[in-house]
Design brief:
This protein is α/β, with parallel strands linked by helices. The protein folds into 3 domains: 383 residues, Up-down Bundle (Na+/H+ antiporter like fold); 132 residues, NAD(P)-binding Rossmann-like Domain (Rossmann fold, 3-Layer(aba) Sandwich); 76 residues, 2-Layer Sandwich (Alpha-Beta Plaits), CATH 3.30.70. 63% of the residues lie in helices and 8% in strands. It is built from 27 helices and 10 strands. Strands 3-2-1-4-5-6 form a 6-stranded parallel beta sheet, sandwiched between helices. The chain has a 4-stranded antiparallel beta sheet with strand order 7-10-8-9. Strand 4, helix 23 and strand 5 form a beta-alpha-beta unit.
Length: 660
């Protein structure tokens, strides 16, 4: 049996390998954790053991996940989506549990099961994967679509239902005669916990965080945050409730303070790492022999989970007013099992409510359903179009609305995304009487903006038919206003396919993906951080008395040089606010005595600078004074000259070694 250190190294190495492989194929990392857990577990290759230490540590992953959900679970969000959350979401969870109990009665002659066990299993099977579904919908840009809102509302209620199921399950394990007594005790305990946390803790939380923040110590803030999360978990555990419940309540409290976003960022590394460990341990529970020996039962359970759950959710979505296409997409997104289903199933196993063999078969079916989720969501559009006869008509109507807006325009601008950047651009175009049509996937935003007179319609700019309807054949330019590289690449692909060489402007956060976007067909890429630095520099120059004409010339020169000097930045030892994957940088180099480059011209050292540009040369003129020399191929380098190099981290390192 490996030591704790060896086991930790095995888990870390396997976790890295799993995430790398699944990221490479564009799949959620959670599937990588599950797959690795299956492979290294004691019931497969036996590389790692399912020790109590690892399982207890992995439980903290669920604690931090529940804390993060608590941070998002505020009353304002709940109020805005109340019809979906407490209508569609509540109906889905309750109906799943009712169907499970009814099925236990109907199948009692085949597989006897108590109604308590059936109710518990219904709760576990009612869960869907928040981690997988939200990530995939976010990548597809469908969170604000009709089915996206339904999915988020249902997932929100499922997250809330977990809290009550974690309280209910221990009571179900009691003797039936003592069930109501146990439930009463549980309600008293939760009431005490809520009183202590919400009425006592709420008064103290904001004041305490303000006090801690006054010291401006990141270390102290982080220690305090861990103390709050684990402290609240300890309170609920002491009262006989779950650790996850305390973490959820702590998250709800902190969500009401001004420190919510800082807390969310600080807790994310702990949550992601420990949650990954939790999914690995879940995978380690799976016995591959069960799939081989009981494959009929596993497939039957898989069919029950996916098919019945899909049919039920699609029918409920239809009953709550969704179109057939939206209902089908909602059902396909939510028909898999979820991470909290594993949490509840572990608790069911601990209470010995069901047979271990059935538990293993159910675990296998749940895992397989999660592996299939990305593919169901990926092909949800095709499935909806295939089985929803009205979907073609609705899409035709949507395309007709787009075409009706664009048909009278010639040499117009197509704006992809109508957020803040898109709306600002539209206002300027209106002032100059330049025609435009905007496509956006947020129905509320489209409705309000249309009523205000803006030329915006509901449509997906990454799809060929919407771009055609928007009049791309007659348009002057396409402007992508959302700073999402993956989504922008989809738009660029369609634009290049429909009209090669089309003038396309793309917004991005920084210049890390500039080459990738240009290679995909972007005429110009506008990095927000660089434009922000230009505006900041221009204001500083004006404050310092530099004439406006000269400031405008400086900014124009920088832009005309395609951000040449500004595309890099000097890295500090503690990082920067740019993205970590941005490898482009500026680097200074002093030519000391004996350096290879001394006595050579810039033309002569050119072969040593593969992929690197010299942005400036500064020469010592006396004391500590330096002057900036004009760059020319004949400039001869001397000892103590300072070179400013621009290039990727690797290429500047290579150039430095050659020059020295």
């Amino acid at each position: 049996m490996p030591s704790v250190l060896q086991l930790t190294l095995i888990l870390l190495a396997s976790g890295v390998a799993g995430v790398l492989i699944f990221r490479y194929f564009g799949l959620p990392p959670i599937l990588g954790y599950l797959a690795i857990g299956v492979l290294i577990g004691p019931k497969a290759f036996g590389i790692a053991s399912d020790s109590e230490t690892v399982r207890y540590l992995a439980e903290f992953g669920v604690v931090f996940l529940m804390f993060s959900i608590g941070l998002e679970f505020n009353l304002q969000k709940l109020r805005a989506m109340r019809s979906i959350v407490f209508g569609l979401g509540a109906s889905q969870v309750l109906l799943t549990m009712v169907l499970a109990v009814l099925s236990s009665f109907l199948l009692s002659w085949v597989y006897p099961m108590s109604w308590q066990a059936a109710l518990a299993l219904g709760g576990a099977l009612s869960m869907s994967s928040t981690a997988i579904v939200t990530k995939l919908l976010s990548d597809r840009g469908e969170l604000e679509a009709g089915h996206g809102r339904n999915v988020i509302g249902v997932l929100l209620f499922q997250d809330l239902a977990v809290v009550f199921l974690l309280i209910l399950l221990p009571a179900l394990g009691k003797d039936p005669k003592d069930l109501f007594f146990a439930l009463g005790i549980a309600l008293i305990k939760i009431s005490i916990a809520l009183f202590l946390i919400f009425f006592v803790g709420r008064q103290m939380m904001s004041r305490w965080f303000k006090l801690v923040a006054q010291f401006r110590s990141q270390e102290l803030f982080m220690l305090n945050l861990l103390l709050i999360v684990l402290g609240f978990s300890a309170i609920t555990e002491h009262l006989g409730l779950s650790l996850a419940l305390g973490a959820f309540l702590a998250g709800m409290l902190i969500s009401e303070t001004p420190f919510r976003h800082q807390v969310e960022e600080d807790i994310k590394p702990f949550r992601d790492v420990l949650l990954g460990l939790f999914f690995i341990t879940v995978g380690m529970l799976l016995d591959l022999h069960v799939i081989l020996d009981q494959w009929v039962l596993v497939l039957a359970l898989l069919a029950i989970i996916v098919i019945i759950k899909f049919a039920m959710i699609a029918a409920l979505a239809r009953a709550f007013g969704a179109s057939a296409g939206v209902a089908i997409r909602t059902g396909l997104c939510l028909c898999q099992a979820g991470e909290f289903g594993f949490v509840l199933l572990n608790q069911i196993d601990g209470l010995k409510l069901i047979d271990p063999a059935l538990s293993q078969a159910l675990l296998a079916a749940m895992l397989i359903s999660m592996f299939g989720a990305p593919f169901l969501i990926q092909y949800s559009d095709r499935i909806a179009l295939r089985f929803a006869s009205s979907e073609w008509l609705l899409q035709s109507l949507a395309l007709t609305r787009v075409a009706a807006k664009s048909v009278r325009h010639e040499n117009h601008i197509i704006i992809c995304g109508f957020g803040r950047a898109g709306q600002s651009l539209a206002r300027m175009l209106d002032q100059e009487k330049i025609p435009y049509i905007a496509l956006d996937l947020d129905p509320d935003r489209v409705a309000e903006a249309s009523m205000a007179g803006d030329q915006v319609v509901y449509g997906d700019s990454s799809r060929e038919n919407y771009l055609v309807s928007a009049g791309i054949a007659r348009a002057k330019a396409v402007v992508v206003t959302f700073a999402d590289t993956a989504a922008s690449l989809k738009v660029l692909y369609q634009v290049e396919r429909l009209r090669p060489g089309m003038t396309t402007l793309v917004r991005t956060k920084d210049d890390s993906d500039l080459k990738k976007l240009e290679a995909a067909g972007a005429t110009e890429v506008v990095p927000e951080l660089i434009e922000g630095s230009l505006m900041l520099a221009s204001h500083v120059l004006l404050i310092m008395g530099v004439p406006m004409r000269k400031v405008v010339r400086r900014v124009t020169e920088a832009r005309e040089a395609r951000y040449g000097l500004l595309r890099g930045y000097f890295r500090g030892s503690e990082g920067d606010d740019l993205e970590e994957n941005d490898s482009w940088r500026l680097h200074t180099l002093t030519l000391l005595a004996g350096s290879h480059a001394i006595g050579k011209t810039l033309h002569e050292i050119g072969p040593d600078l593969e992929g690197v540009a010299i942005q400036a040369v500064r020469r010592k003129v006396g004391g500590d004074d330096y002057v900036k020399l004009p760059l020319s191929p004949d400039l001869c380098l001397l000892e103590n000259d300072i070179l400013v190099l621009s290039g990727s981290s690797d290429s500047t390192d290579v150039a430095e070694s050659k020059l020295l």
